[in-house]
């Protein structure tokens, strides 16, 4: 194979024949010797006669050029010139398929798998042994797998999925030398994600040294998100990219949380643009506190990878904490106020609410702190107990009032009053209290004992300079040790806690100010409040500094596509492992818990940056994931050669006088045709019927816009496949005729739209048949599609494969294409169409949605809960019309008719019943998108009729 730019000659040796063209020119110009002149008087009798047949004494130069062009075109044709030739792996020796397989490979994973399967099929035909390696998977025993027949790898390759961490290229680089010795050299196809993941070695050079190397990179590098943070009351996440030279790029992200029904719900959407040369851009979500605390993750729309998802944890969830003091400290000095140190500890990271107990309970706080509140009325106790048992956290601090109230309670019990455990205290208290280190005490002030492993404060370092001078004491009991969370050096409880219903009560046996101890003056005080989930960490790094010394277990982990998944049998890990912020197989990104604390481990931290990978070796063949279409010019050149030979025959007849055209006119015609063929670009002759012609600006687009504004028009997306587009047009034509004959809607002839250049706002509905090889539209096209769905338009996706089910997007090539094409769209959560959906009764009463195929599910926007509780926003757009309908029944084939009204595609075996039901679904679909949900009340008709009958 000889390559010249993007053109390759499959039979390059035939090009040597071009060297014979000069000799051919000389031979064609050769003429016989001139005749001898002999005087013959009888020749005079021939004077005045005209011979219609003439023979020139020399071949004209333009006719020679025409013949040489014909011969050159034939030579080039048989040399098999091919534009964008596809790389084949049908040689000898072993083939190594190396896939990065990490999070950055997830956005175009289906294309990567298709490329690998194609290479595997070529190797299987050639009988080559193959080694398939996922660089994100640990190598068993540090060695790559053994070479096996190509067919044995097909199942493993089809089941392979991207991992939610970076590939370990250095581990594979260490094993390349041994692999080279085992295989005796090999050829490599490396599907790289184009990013540098802190690689130390140069894997590309090692693979190039072992044999031929083909490096396939992504069309566009993956994006990532830094962990969300709080800035000025807003939730902010920073998006990263590795190629600032790519120019401006718009990125959209969604803040996702759980609704009351437990399903994921978009709480807010933010959009920003990477400026020219910028590597980062901030996405800000301005949410009220209630919604901000519901955010579980931030996800870049259209970026289906674990790197495009940033999980949120307690670091960005501000708690609402109510503060109540037993004394009026409005005029007291700050350091003697019972609430001063609590305010200082909580205000930077929590919303503090103060007031009466009833006012605070009505504010629905996450926690209530009582600072030495001794006596409460029965009404207050009942309300506080009910709030706590419903899930509230009650934290109490002792003091003189608390000690006096307990003394009086014990006296009442001794005199026959009510006895029993106080639900607002975790333990029973002894009367009075305990003073240590005073003038009348033999004891010295007590320090704090290191926290036990079972304590919520486990792992916190205890400063040696903290002393406790006074405390309230707990009554000894069998459950006292279990309820003790912190103790003094002599073992007496300092902090006790107990569960109450769904809530919890915690008691600090000292005051909230420095009157009884120096605990409020230390940093340990703030850390203890954070452990009790009263205050959010100032930053994720502050939480990570406290990871060591505890065992953390996964609550939720992310898969390679950035979707939350169950951790399964994944074991807990030491905090030191999570503090590395280096996700891997043993510690994938996700939410981890230790006691009352949760921490989100993301792929990126606050200082992370994306770095593009280095250039591949000079000897490597470099390809992109989306390959250009291969074009073979043999047929076009042979056609040109035949046409030139035909012109040569016409010109020869004209020169010989056998045509009545003037000689100069024939010569001019031949030269004009030859010049036209020479000037025409080869691509124009080889252009396939499925390729789109370049549109003259303003003409066809204006005609479409005018037609769509005059009448109601149903439109379909042109896929570039002529057969699919023909069926789509015929299908919408048939549906339009049925609508005209049965309803008040009279659509005009359907129109095919080009997503890249046509305006979409004129159409109420876009029918999008999914073709497995349809290229992904540009960002500008997706921007138009998102605007189309947000302003009332509907997209009907039809995979036409009759396999759509709950796991759509993975079963068939069309399903995978649907997943790829729909990923960048801003779509709401979807669900299978319920039996009572308004789509079943907008015109006809339907129970199913058949097309050419029966069965399968139809997916549309998930219904919102009718009650808007907890301030959760629900989607009420487009008059209740779902912006998307997804099915697999091939509806266009069932609707398709030709110009004469004859059905194009056979459907069903029940005498046209299935086709009729397909038309009824189409009528309901159009009426649904045009009229909205005004017939939703008809859902209640069966119940009303039943009631009237009774």
UniProtKB/TrEMBL annotation:
<dbReference type="InterPro" id="IPR025297">
    <property type="entry name" value="DUF4159"/>
</dbReference>
<feature type="transmembrane region" description="Helical">
    <location>
        <begin position="665"/>
        <end position="685"/>
    </location>
</feature>
<keyword id="KW-0812">Transmembrane</keyword>
<dbReference type="Pfam" id="PF07584">
    <property type="entry name" value="BatA"/>
</dbReference>
<feature type="domain" description="DUF4159">
    <location>
        <begin position="714"/>
        <end position="930"/>
    </location>
</feature>
<feature type="transmembrane region" description="Helical">
    <location>
        <begin position="61"/>
        <end position="79"/>
    </location>
</feature>
<protein>
    <submittedName>
        <fullName>N-terminal double-transmembrane domain-containing protein</fullName>
    </submittedName>
</protein>
<keyword id="KW-1133">Transmembrane helix</keyword>
<keyword id="KW-0472">Membrane</keyword>
<dbReference type="InterPro" id="IPR011933">
    <property type="entry name" value="Double_TM_dom"/>
</dbReference>
<feature type="domain" description="Aerotolerance regulator N-terminal">
    <location>
        <begin position="7"/>
        <end position="81"/>
    </location>
</feature>
<dbReference type="InterPro" id="IPR024163">
    <property type="entry name" value="Aerotolerance_reg_N"/>
</dbReference>
<dbReference type="InterPro" id="IPR029062">
    <property type="entry name" value="Class_I_gatase-like"/>
</dbReference>
<dbReference type="Pfam" id="PF13709">
    <property type="entry name" value="DUF4159"/>
</dbReference>
<feature type="transmembrane region" description="Helical">
    <location>
        <begin position="635"/>
        <end position="659"/>
    </location>
</feature>
